[in-house]
Specification:
10 helices; 6-stranded parallel sheet; about 15% strand; about 240 residues; 3-stranded antiparallel sheet; alpha/beta; Rossmann fold; about 45% helix; 2 domains
Length: about 240
C-alpha cells in the first residue's frame, strides 16, 4: 500500500512516513522555553544559581530558529546544563553531569503532558489517517522516554510502528542514519519514504538519505513542499 500526500505545492506518494517530533508534531520553541524555565526553577530548588550562564549557552534570548535550545540532542541538553553548573559554581565535572541529569528528570516530572505536548494543529489526526495506509515512524533528537510519553498521552501507541532517537545511531541529524535505519526496519528504499519535519537538519537528513521531505510551518530550501500545519495536508490512499 501507499499514501498520497498533497498540499498547495506538492503531490507525493510514499510507502512510509517518518515524522520529526518537536516543532513538527508538537509546538517547538514555545515548549522548549517552557522546559528551560522549569529546569531553572528546579535549579533554584537544588541551590544552584545557573540561569545567567544557561541562558547564554542555550541561546534562550536570541530570536533565531537554530539556537541550541531548539536543535540540541537530549544528551547535549544535559551537557549544556552541566556546563552552566560548572561555569557558575566550579564543581567537579562528574558532579555537574549528575546534577544536570537530575535537573532534567525533576523538571520533566513537574510538567504536565499538556505543557510538554501542545500539538501542532492537525498533527494527531494526520498520524491516525496516515497509519491507515502505511507504516509510520518518529525520528527525533529527543529522548525515547519523552516520545513514549507523547504517544501514550495522544493515544497513538498503536499508530506509530517505530521510534528512533539520536541515541540509537552513531550520529544524529543531519546525518542520514536515523532514516536509513527506519527504511531497513520497514524493508523499503529511502526513496519510497517521505520525512515530515520543521528544521533544516530534517531537510538535510532527508536529502542525505535520498528521501523526500515536507516541512511544517515554513518552506525551507531543499524541501519538496511545505504546509503551515496539518490541516493543509490532504491524505488519501494512493
Amino acid at each position: 500500500m501507499a499514501v498520497r500526500l498533497k498540499g498547495k505545492d506538492f503531490d507525493i506518494v510514499a510507502k512510509a512516513v517518518v515524522f520529526d517530533k518537536d516543532g513538527t508534531l508538537t509546538q517547538g520553541l514555545k515548549v522548549w522555553k517552557r522546559i528551560f524555565e522549569k529546569q531553572m526553577e528546579v535549579s533554584k530548588e537544588m541551590n544552584l544559581n545557573i540561569e545567567s550562564e544557561a541562558r547564554k549557552l542555550f541561546g534562550v534570548d536570541i530570536e533565531e530558529p537554530y539556537i541550541p535550545l531548539a536543535i540540541a540532542y537530549s544528551s547535549e541538553e544535559k551537557t549544556l546544563l552541566a556546563a552552566s553548573i560548572w561555569l557558575s559554581h566550579h564543581l567537579p565535572w562528574d558532579e555537574c553531569r549528575n546534577l544536570a541529569s537530575e535537573m532534567v528528570k525533576r523538571a520533566l516530572e513537574k510538567m504536565t503532558d499538556e505543557e510538554l505536548f501542545e500539538p501542532v494543529d492537525g498533527a494527531r489526526e494526520a498520524i491516525e489517517m496516515i497509519s491507515k495506509f502505511v507504516p509510520v515512524a518518529i525520528a527525533t533528537s529527543d529522548s525515547r522516554e519523552n516520545v513514549e510519553r507523547l504517544l501514550k498521552n495522544w493515544n497513538l501507541e498503536s499508530n506509530v510502528n517505530y521510534v528512533i532517537t539520536s541515541q540509537d545511531v552513531e550520529e544524529g541529524k543531519p546525518a542520514p542514519y536515523m532514516l536509513q535505519k527506519v527504511c531497513k526496519v520497514f524493508d523499503l528504499c529511502c526513496s519510497e519514504v517521505v520525512m515530515i519535519g520543521d528544521n533544516k537538519v530534517d531537510v538535510e537528513m532527508a536529502k542525505n538519505a535520498g528521501s523526500k521531505i515536507i516541512t511544517v510551518g515554513n518552506f525551507l530550501e531543499g524541501a519538496n513542499g511545505w504546509i503551515k500545519d496539518f490541516k493543509e495536508l490532504d491524505i488519501s490512499k494512493a
